[in-house]
Every structure is written in C-alpha cells, then in structure tokens.
Amino acid sequence: MSGQVSSGVHPSTNQQQAGHAAASGAHVDRQVRYTPYAIPFYRHRSRRENMEGNKKPQEQGMEGNGQDKPSRSWFKISIPFGIKYDEKWLLSVIQKQCNAPFTPVEFHYEKMEAQFFVEGASVAFELKNISGRLLDEDNEKISILVSASEIPHSVQRQPQSEMVEMTKPNTDKICDISQLSLDIQRLCFDPGMDSGSGPKADWTTDNTAIAPEPRDYKAASLQNHEASMMKLLPSKLSNTIQNVSITENLDVSKYKMKPAVELGREKGQGSEEMCTEKASLSTTFPDKCSGISSSVLEMFPKLLCLGGQYSLSASNFCTEVYKTLPTCKGGFLGTDALKDLVLQFLQQYYSIYDYGDRQGLLAAYHEKACFSLSIPFNPKDPTLSCLYELYKDSRNMKKLTDPYLRVQLLKYTKHDIVRSLCMLPKTQHDLSSFVVDMWVQTETMFCFSVYGIFKEVEGEYQGSVRAFTRTFVTTPESHTSLCIMNDELSVRVATPSEIQRTFSMLMPTPTLILSQEQQKMVQAFSIQSGMNLQWSHKYLHDSDWDYNRAIQALSLPKQGKVKDFRRGPHTD
Amino acid sequence: MEGTGSYHRDWSEENRGRQYQQHDQHRQPEGSGSHYYGPQGDHSRQGNRIPEEVVTPPLAASASSGSLMAAAVDFKTHVDQACRAAEEFVNIYYETMDKRRQALTRLYLDKATLIWNGNVVTGLDALANFFDMLPSSEFQVNMLDCQPVHEQATQAQTTILVVTSGTVKFDGNKQHYFNQNFLLTAQCTPSNTVWKIASDCFRFQDWASSN
C-alpha cells in the first residue's frame, strides 16, 4: 500500500501538496482531497515567513497568505509494539475501523513501533480517534499515536512537474456540513433547551464557593504540559515553537467563540439543529468563519490550529503521545471550618456506629431521609461472594434490574434507615484511613464522600477488612451539626495494601522487652499458627499471654471464603 | 396525564399524615403492579434523539393530596424515575467519555464542578480543557446506585444522587478501580426532562499509590 503513492505522483515541492492524493489514483477519498481543514501549512523551513509580520491566526486561516498556495499537512502515525504485526494485516485492520480511507506512506518499523505517514488533518484525526479500539488476534489493544510531521522524504523527492490546483478553501465549503466526516447532529442540543434555566433559587449556581479560581488549575497544568512537551519534541519543531508565544495562545479569554446562539440565524444550514449552548474554546483558534462554522471549530480546534499555529498543532497532536494524568491529591475539603465540621460529624457518627447502639443515629437523619447500600458486581471475583451474603440488601442496579425491588431496597424515613443499619454487621472503622472529598457546598447542602476502611468485629467474617465509599448529602442544622438527607454506602473487599495500612494503625505499640519465656511462646505460636512473629505477638498479647486462649482466638472461618486478615501477613 | 402543574417532587407529606406502608415490606407486588411504576407509561424519547443528552419522560407531578396510597405512589414514582434517569445517564456518560470525549461537557451544567482525585475543576471552560487533556479512556462500570435527593437540600431543584464504581484504563496508564458520584439536576419541559451534571466527584481507589 505504501508504494502506491509514490508512483505516478507529481506533488509540488515544499508547501504545495495540493492534489497529490488525487493524482495517485488509488485510495483517494474525495473527502480527504477536499477537506475543508486544509489550511495553509507553514513548514518550519519557512519559519522566516512565520516570524515576519507574526501573522495572526485570522490572517493565516482559510485564505492562505498571499504568497503560498494552500498546502497539506502531514502526520506520522505510530503503532506502539507494531513490530509484532504484519504490515498488510495491520493496515487492513486499521482501515476497517477508520471512518476515513487513508493512504499510508513509507510504512516501516522503527524499534518496536510500526510507523507510516498520512496526509491531511481529518484523516489523522480519524486515526487518532480509533486508537485503543482495535484488537489484535490476542485480543490486545492496538494504540495509534499521531503526531504532526514534515513531509515524508519519499514524497519530497518527487519532482514536481505540475502544480495541481487545490480547490481554494472558502468559508462556504467549510460551512458545508455534508462534507464533514463528523456527525454534527451528535454535538447538538435539543434547541429548546437553555441550560441553567432552572428556578432562580438554584443550588447549582450557588455551588461556587467550593472551588478556587479555575484558572489556577488550568494555567498551571497547561504550562507544565507545554514545558514538558517542549523537551520531547524533535529539536526542529521546538525551535519553531520557541518563536511563538505559547502562554499567550493559551489565554482562553482571547479566543472566546461567538455564542452559538447566533448560529441558529444562519440560513440553509439545518441551523435549527445547531447548538444553543455557548462554550468557549479552551485552546487557541478564534473563529475565523462567521456563523455556523464556529461550532465546528470549537469542537475541533486542534485541526484548525495546524496551518495557523504550527507549534500548537504539533503540541496538540503530541499530547496524545505524551498525555499523562493529573496528579492525584488527597481529599478536598474546602475551608478549614468546613473541614472541622465534616470531620467532627464523621467522628460522632462513627463512634455511635462502631461502639454505641446504632439506634442513636436516629438523631443524625432527617425524618424523610434515604439510605441505600451497594456491592460491586463482578462475576469474575470470588471474594465478593461473602459480601453478598452479609449485605443482602445490596441495591446495585447493575445486578438488580427489577424496578420493584429497586424501590423497595431504598430505605426511606429515618426509622427504616436505622433499622437496617442495626442489621448490618458490627464494625470498627479506621478514621485515620478516611479520605473525604467535599463536592457540593451551598447554603442548604453539603455533599461529601468518604473513602476508607473498616474491620468486621463479629460474626462469621470477624476480622475481615473492607473498603467502603460513603456519600452523605447533608443539610447544615447549625454551625456545628449536619442533618443527613441522603446516605449511600458501597462496600468492597479491601486490597492487600489497604489491609496493611489498617493493620499498621491497629498494631500494639512496639514491645516492651519480652521475657525469655514470652519469646519462646511467640516463636511456638508463630509456627503453630503460620503467622509471622509480629502477629503472633499481638495474639498472645491480646490473650494476656495465655497460649491456649490465643490459639482458640484463631478460630478459622469456613473454608474457601474471605481472606481473613488473621492469617496475617506471612511474609514480611 | 401529568405534565402540567408543578414539577417539583413533593416530599412534604407531613401535612397529609402519611405513614410509611408496612405492607410494602413483603415483596409481592400488588395487583398489576403498574401503580408502583408511576403513570408515565412507556419510556420513549420524544423529538430528535441526541446521544449526549439524558432525557426521560416528564416528571410526574405530585398526585392529589389525600389518599395514603397516592402518597405512596408518589415516593415510588420518584424513586423509579430516579432509577431510570440514572441508568440512562450512566450509559450515556461513559460511552461519551470513551468514544466522543469532545462532547462530554454537553452533559454538564455551565457552572458544574468536578473534583477529580482531589483536583477541582469548575465551569465548562475548565471542564472542556480538562477532558481534552485526559488520555483516551475505557470505562467498565460494575456498580450503580441512585437516590432522589431531598428537596430541602436542593432548594426545590429536582436532583438525583448517582453513585458508580468500576474500572478504568486511561491510555498509557495502568488500569485503576474508581469511584464516581454525581448530582444530576433536572431541567423540565412539558414534553421531557433533561438531566445534567451539577457536580461530579471522581477518585481512583488506589489514588494514593498512583502518582
């Protein structure tokens, strides 16, 4: 496949790539040829032109600058571990999934990757889209990485005998929705909807106290992103980038789109389908076209960045290669006052829940509160079966489809709730393990989620450690107390590292010196029980150094059920 | 047919002297069972179907006051509506997240807030940027629960609490178990109800060891 392009093709040199795809005669997609996104592409070689006059995006955009003819953009497609795959097989698998036909150029293997080039932003975009959706014959995912590229050498070397004129992109073409390979319909709202038009006293608009200025997060992370990408780009590209003021480009306020409400007024575009919600571009391109196209542009700013902002185009595609997740942080609790309020609430709640009569929780709930409980559903995980036994009222809707039962298993009114809480196993929660996110904070509602671990302290599974997430929707009753409106508990099996962490909290303080005899007991106990010395010590300590009692305390759960923490960490 | 009148769930049954029906405890549905599911009938969408919208039939207005049975229907109806909306929502949300990421912000209110592993993201601009920066994803949900949120907390804005968990694989990263909670609010018209996320809280179960 890769050979086809180079034969019989007379592409223009340098910037002019117009029509080369058409001339090749094979696998040419009209769509690709006439892509509305073919904006003049300024290769780094013409950097001087870029720098001169420092063209604003608007000028570069659709019209091209005065001198250069409209040209195409090239992209390198990399398949990590593609070396495993036969070229024909790989390309056909990709083509099957890909919405746009593509013509791979210079297919080759480099180290562990398979690589080839394609021309045209829309094609590259389609390929990027299907990354991770392909499976090889071992059912493993095939990733597709896309980065902007110079014109492949084989294509560059072609003598140019004629310049094939590319249809000059104009605003009409761009606004012609039928040419887009994207389903615009999917991007639109019900036109009658105006988001945020609920009742005036809307808690959702009230919930602003919770967050710091969003720019802080955005600015910092984007800057870091840009900085790290600069290091990773090939030096040629990064030279270009340095000539462009990146932080300026990332200033959102400069590039706000026209409110999409205006779109509805354009004629002949099926415009009633277009959007009502305004959304600002988060990166770069201000709207070059008027009217309809701006909603398209706003959805796909990356494509339009190519010609005008070479640096950003490279960086936008490179982000796919180098994308990392934001750093995970601890619980978000807002102000100190809120933190105190919530932690105090949790302390009170769990001291009753764990050590008192749970009837005492009646005071914590609203008259018409709701409570439900849920266990994850995973048929492949045998450790969950004990949870199903213990928590029979699990209302996991992934497993429970009966609408009647779904209603029934939601506990309603505080009496009903407390009655069911009393029926749940007795527990000991490790408050030091708690992580709390406060995710709604208004005058009338504090909503927060608690993640943590607890131990079952009686019954068949005594000693088993569980992890839980509990979400409380509460109403402040006074400065110091919260009233629970909704309470949702989900319980799962704890991971070994979570178990370890709990135990480190519950371990006895490091030893007083053991007598000889005690040391011998610990050793013997360790051998007999199969536990390590630390745990053997604990058992004996808890049994007042009565060896037999300690042994009895080891009463084992039924075979084949939950991993019991008392088996202990055998290996240290 | 409900559709006119108030769209607020009416939780204030105190005035009606409602008592919780004990006979509901046994699991045999009475009669045809239809009155447990509310009168809205077939769950069909009206108008153009837009995948990124979560649309349900209009919320049933409160039944007329008086009968205890009517009050019981009320609550069950609300719960049932919540369940349908939640199920629909979760399907659309994760499919959009995985396959049409650029459209995900359509499911959020303008001033929605997301807390993602302790990082706070507020407003559509920031959300769009955030979702754009996240690598492509593949979600698998294995737990879903939901409750209608009490009116007193939400200042009469119809709201559902949705809780999910499962696994997620972000491109270039290892698989994580996650928990996610949403508050969805309803925007009601005579013909349907559109649900959007007002607030969103997401966390890896192993967040502490994932940096």
Automatic annotation (TrEMBL), chain A:
Residues 1-26, 45-71 are annotated as: Disordered. CDD domains: UBA_TAP-C. It is found in: Nucleus. Residues 516-572 form the TAP-C domain. Residues 15-26 have a biased composition (Low complexity). Keywords: Leucine-rich repeat, Nucleus, Repeat. Residues 48-58 have a biased composition (Basic and acidic residues). Residues 1-14 have a biased composition (Polar residues). Residues 341-491 form the NTF2 domain. It holds the Pfam family NXF_NTF2. This is Nuclear RNA export factor 3. It comes from Erinaceus europaeus. InterPro entries: NTF2-like_dom_sf (IPR032710), NTF2_dom (IPR002075), Nuclear_transport_factor_2_euk (IPR018222), Nucleotide-bd_a/b_plait_sf (IPR012677), NXF1/2/3/5-like_LRR (IPR057125), NXF_fam (IPR030217), RBD_domain_sf (IPR035979), TAP_C_dom (IPR005637).
UniProtKB/TrEMBL annotation, chain B:
PROSITE patterns: NTF2_DOMAIN. It comes from the Eukaryota. InterPro entries: NTF2 (IPR045875), NTF2-like_dom_sf (IPR032710), NTF2_dom (IPR002075), Nuclear_transport_factor_2_euk (IPR018222). SUPFAM superfamilies: NTF2-like (SSF54427). Residues 7-29 have a biased composition (Basic and acidic residues). CDD domains: NTF2. Residues 1-49 are annotated as: Disordered. Residues 85-204 form the NTF2 domain. This is NTF2-related export protein 2 isoform X1. It comes from Erinaceus europaeus (Western European hedgehog).
